[in-house]
Each structure stands twice: as structure tokens, then as C-alpha cells.
Amino acid sequence: MAGHAATDKREKNLGWRNTFAGMGINLALGILYTWSVISKSVPKEWGWNEDQKSLPYMFACLVFSLVMVPAGRLQDKYSPRLVASIGGVLVGAGFIMAGMTSSLWMFVIGFGVLVGAGLGFGYASATPPAVKWFPPAKTGMIAGIVVSGFGLASVYAAPLTIKLIGSFGFQAALVIWGVAFLGVVVGLAQLLKPPHKALQFSRGYGRLGALKDRAAVQKEVFVAERTDFEPGEVLRTSQFYLLWFMYACGAGAGLMIIGKLAAIGNSLGISLGFVLVAVLAAGNGGGRIVAGIMSDRLGRKATLGSCFVFQAALIFLLSRASQDNLLGTLPAMAVLSALIGANYGANLSLFPAITKDYYGLKHFGMNYGMVFSAWGVGGFMLAKLAGAMYVKYETFSVAYYGAACLLILAAVTVVFLKVPQHAGDAVAERVRPPVLPLKESMAAEED
């Protein structure tokens, strides 16, 4: 009996172990958000212009989003420990490779492809094992804690990157980051361990825990609605393309600013660009939590539309900032950066929630992975826009106007969103829900 109690205690503690290990992994992977600090420090003798400096970041965003889909499936099929370890090795190798070359395209392969792929493997593996240790009612809180690490990473990474570059030089700093991330991510990955599916079911953990309640409830009247969509079915709904477009606009606008913030500050005569990056990171982490709470109370659509309009207004204000007015001062830019970060972070909270609401939980990993591809494409395209327009016009204003217009268009698109329906759904059928045996129930609920 005592041994059984000890086992229970150990297993319960694994939930928080997984949660903080996942958060720690994301705190390392969030180095992506310090790209503006890294790119600003690229040696001038390399001859890279702003457009070329955008390339590694663009590819990292794109590869990250595309790898999320297979990585999510692999961590579920094999283990989050293995997949997160692969992510740590790729991120470390990518930084080390980038730190050993001055070639633009080798840097793109290192930072853009290897680091981007590593981010996808690590990010996809950090949250699932944590939420599976808790009841469904705590899923939002646990997921929020884990992913907040990614948004908050720049709070420490931006000033530390400046310190490392100042002390050891640009290339050595990247190699140091590579070694550190390889060790930290692979080390923390060994702490990731989801509970056995039978344990999830018996103790009410994760989605499988809900099967106990479902099996216990016997009702005379049962509404036989299908709420879970297969990935192929998702692609046949118009809502997927509306969500994809809005996500590309909202995330792309935020990623564009994140990727160029240090250069934006430099253009305004603000030498402490890393401070803006750190402040934006704080807003990014906080925005995910606030938006989630708001969407629970006001509704997903109302919150999403408000964030799009607010972000468009903030980016328009950013276009008005100059060294000759108040908007171009460090305090004003810090406020704008924090608010832009918060509205960007809201996307990372709202779109997973909407995907779950519209398409169900059974295939959530794959379905959200498809929606998340918009994050990478949006970041790729708008980062390219910012760099190309700066090279042509020597100002970021054209890119600001383009991003603001896309955000307004996304806000209008929200009006057309509605819950998708399966073709031929049966409703209000007087049937008793079948109670499957435990083994069959868990098999049916697997992603």
C-alpha cells in the first residue's frame, strides 16, 4: 500500500516536471525572436544588405512551421523525448554552422534550415507530454505556461547576445549559443515523459481521461454530432482557408517587426535596440495569456478582430515615428514594442483555441500543424517585404503600410467565420451512446 502511494506521488509530480522542462526548452528555442539583434551585429565587411539579412530569419520561420506537422506526429508515435532531442541537436548544429561561415547561403542553411527544423521538432514536443499529466480543465493553463517560455526568451537572450558578441565576437557568440542550446535542450528533453495511455484514462488525465465520464453517462437522448474533423476534411472547409489567411496576416505582421526591431530602433537613433526586443518579448508572453482569458469571456471572433485592428493601429503609429517626434523616443518605442508583442502573442493563443473549437481534439496536432503553416509563410513573406522595401526606399514605412492593410483585411475576414459542419451530420438522434471497451476506446481517441 505504501509502495502504491509512493508511486502515485511520483507520477503526480511528473506533470510539473514535464511542464517546466517544456517551458525550459521553449526558453532556449525562443532565440528566434532575437534575430533583429543578431542581424544588426552581422559584420559590415560581409556586405549584407537588409534584404539579405532577412533571408536566414525568413527560412527559419518557414521551415519551423512546415516541420511542425511531421514533428507532432513523430513525438506522438515514438516519444517527445526523442523528438525534442533531435530538435536540440539540430538547433545546436545550426548555430555552430552559422558561426563558422561568412557565406550568406551557408548561413541560411545553418540558421534558416537546421535551426528552423530544430525549432519545429522541439516546439512540437514540449507541450503534449505536459498537458497529458493534467485533467482537461487545466489544459489551457499548462499549455500557456509551456509556450510562454518561447515568447519570453528574448528577455534574457537579447541582452546576453549583445554581451556575448561584445566579449567574443559575432561568430564565436553563435558557436557558444549552439553548444549551449544543444546541451540545454537535449538535457531537458530527457525529462519529458507522457503518462501511459491506461494511466491517462484511469486517472482522468488529458483527453483520454474524458472517456471515463463519457462511458459513465448513459442518456436516453443523444445528439450525434461529429465534432472531430479528419485533416482531409479540414482542407475541404472554407473556414480553414479563412483561418490560414488571417493567421498569415497577424503572425506575419508581428514577425516582420520582431525580425527588424533592432534595425528599426537604429534608424531612429536608438542604440539600445536589444531593450526594445526584450520589452517586446515580455509583451509577447503576456499577450498569450491575456488574449486567452479575453477570448473565454468575449468570444474568439471578437477578441481576434479587436487584436487585428489594434495591431494595425500600432503599426501605423510606428510608421509615424521619427527622430523628430515623441514616437521616436526610447520610452514611446518601448510601449509600442510591448503592445505589438502582446498582439502578436495573441495569435499564438487564439488560433490554437479556434482550431480546437472548430475541428475538435482528436486530430488537433495535425490540424493545427496545417493551420500553423500560415505562421511560417506569413513571417517569410512579410520579412521579405520589409527587407526588400528598405533596400529600395531606405525606409520601413512601405512595409508598415502593407502590414497594416493586411491586418485590416484580416479583421474584415473575421466577420465571415462560422463553425464548420460535417456533410450529412446526424442530429438529435434518439440513441444510446455505445460504451466501447477500454482498449478500443483509447485506440479510437488516439491522434
Walkthrough of the structure:
With 447 residues, the protein is an all-alpha fold. The two termini are 35 Å apart. The chain has helices at residues 2-29, 35-40, 50-77, 80-98, 104-126, 128-131, 139-168, 170-189, 197-203, 210-216, 231-235, 238-267, 273-298, 300-320, 330-359, 364-393, 397-414, 438-445. The chain is globular, with a radius of gyration of 23 Å.
**Strands, count:** 0
Output mean pLDDT.
81
Q: Which class do the helix and strand fractions yield?
A: mainly alpha
Q: From the alpha-carbon coordinates, what is the Rg to the nearest angstrom?
A: 23 Å
As for the number of domains, it is: 2
> How many strands, what sense, and barrel or not for the largest sheet?
none
Shape: globular
CATH superfamily of the largest domain: MFS general substrate transporter like domains
CATH class category name of the largest domain = Mainly Alpha
**N to C succession of SSEs:** HHHHHHHHHHHHHHHHHH
Residue windows where pLDDT falls under 50 for at least 5 positions:
1-11, 198-212, 214-225, 426-447
The fraction of residues assigned to DSSP E strands is: under 5%
